[in-house]
Amino acid sequence: MDKKIALVTGGVGGIGSAICKRLAQQGHFVVANYGIPGTETRYLEKMAAAGLNGHSTALAFGDVTDYDAIGEMVQGIEKTHGPVDILVNCAGITRDATFRKMTPEQWHLVIETNLTSVFNVTRHVIDGMCERGWGRVVNISSVNGVRGQFGQTNYSAAKAGILGFTKALAQEVIRKGVTVNAISPGYVETEMVAAIRDDVRQQIVAQIPAGRLGLPEEIAESVAYLTSDKSAYITGTNLSINGGLHMYA
Ligand code: CAA
Ligand code: NAP
């Protein structure tokens, strides 16, 4: 497969950096988006440890909740590195609270960061993909978007929204050679899961048939497949990777 330019939002995070590493190892040039200045150093260290340098990866700052800022970021990437062929929407946050305690701020921040962001970034790359006749969009949803989760009305709504977005856009762009798919990870070993109260996290892990958390690399492997030429006929799907935590037809 030719070398492509891949943009991964939340690329410096736990799952995001594993995706960047995997796509770079596949021979692509990977741009990792990040939203908080200062988080770049750790990313570069991780990539260097995997033998990857400026020839295979770069960083791009941009708040995914800001449509115009992301437009400028994408323009900058395209000018410096070339057009974005692969987009992985991976940026996300949690603001967990039972619904009766949830504030409007917690609701809006999660919807903006986890769902509106997918519009904000995809909107700026989709025309180019369609015009060039090839593109891959992978949206990172969650098991909790599929089944709902106690304490996550905001997050579950946003992640379920991603699944609707994926299925609708997939129909619009497949004839242009662009596929749009979702991946719904279960609980994966990253800072997001480490932030859950210890006793609550232990109860969750006890419910996972696999008996353990997932690894970021286990998510990255499927992103590599869904962004390859081999997956050209797969679109609008949602791939569950959750150790058996939730199964549905
Ligand atoms: N189902 C039913 N009842 C539950 C419950 C559950 N899953 N969890 C808690 N309860 C009950 C408690 O027993 C308690 O009942 P009583 O009032 O009768 O004693 C009541 O609900 C209050 O529960 P908490 O003490 O937990 O309430 P809290 O306000 O202290 O905490 C919470 C609420 C922060 C949401 C906490 O429950 C929590 O962290 N839950 C985990 C949420 C979660 O899974 N987050 C995932 C983050 S990682 C991620 O999102 C990645 C991904 O995609 C998988
Ligand atoms: P993480 O390590 O906390 O990574 C999240 C990333 O999102 C961070 O790098 C963060 O970058 C970025 N981000 C947050 N707000 C942003 C913003 N406004 N603009 C730009 N970037 C922003 O968590 P993770 O576990 O790897 O999560 C990655 C994705 O997988 C999320 O969408 C999450 O919902 C999803 N997911 C995770 C799990 C899990 O169990 N871990 C399960 C299912 C789905 P900055 O810190 O630089 O802002």
Task: Please outline the helices and strands.
Elements (H helix, E strand, L loop, with lengths): L4 E4 L5 H12 L3 E6 L5 H10 L7 E5 L5 H14 L5 E4 L14 H29 L2 E6 L2 H5 L5 H21 L4 E8 L5 H4 L3 H9 L9 H11 L11 E4 L8
Parallel strand pairs: 1-2, 1-4, 2-3, 4-5, 5-6, 6-7
Helix pairs in contact: 1-9, 3-4, 4-6
The structure holds acetoacetyl-coenzyme A and NADP nicotinamide-adenine-dinucleotide phosphate (NAP).
Notable characteristics:
single chain, about 250 residues, alpha/beta, Rossmann fold, seven-stranded parallel beta sheet, 9 helices, about 45% helix, globular, binds acetoacetyl-coenzyme A, binds NADP nicotinamide-adenine-dinucleotide phosphate
Sequence of strands across the biggest β-sheet: 3-2-1-4-5-6-7
Strand content: 5-15%
What small-molecule ligands were found?
acetoacetyl-coenzyme A, NADP nicotinamide-adenine-dinucleotide phosphate
Average the pLDDT over all residues and give the rounded result: 97
What is the C-alpha radius of gyration, as a whole number of Å? 17 Å
- Number of folding domains? 1
* CATH 4th-level superfamily: NAD(P)-binding Rossmann-like Domain
> Major β-sheet, in short?
7 strands, parallel
